[in-house]
Write the structure tokens for this entry.
Amino acid sequence: MKTIIGECLEEFLQDNEDFLEDQLRGIDPLELLTIADTCSLLKVSKMTLYQHIRSGKLKKIRIGYNSRSPVRFRRMDLEKFINQHVEKK
């Protein structure tokens, strides 16, 4: 029984490593950022941000049900986006 619990705990920690590290650094990975905040963080224009959204590279969250509802971005999605686009030497 303890082995199963230990294995489950180990798997959970591996799957959520980034989330837990962010929590320890005092960063909320579920924090929602505005378009302006996201552009500032990524150092890109709104047009470039919208291109990344349309291409499916960046996930957005719409607050509401219609096309005029505000858009937000989860910090953890932005960190994944950044990590996927880091140049590897």
Observations:
- The first strand starts at residue 32 and ends at 33.
- The first helix runs from residue 2 to 15.
- The radius of gyration is 17 Å.
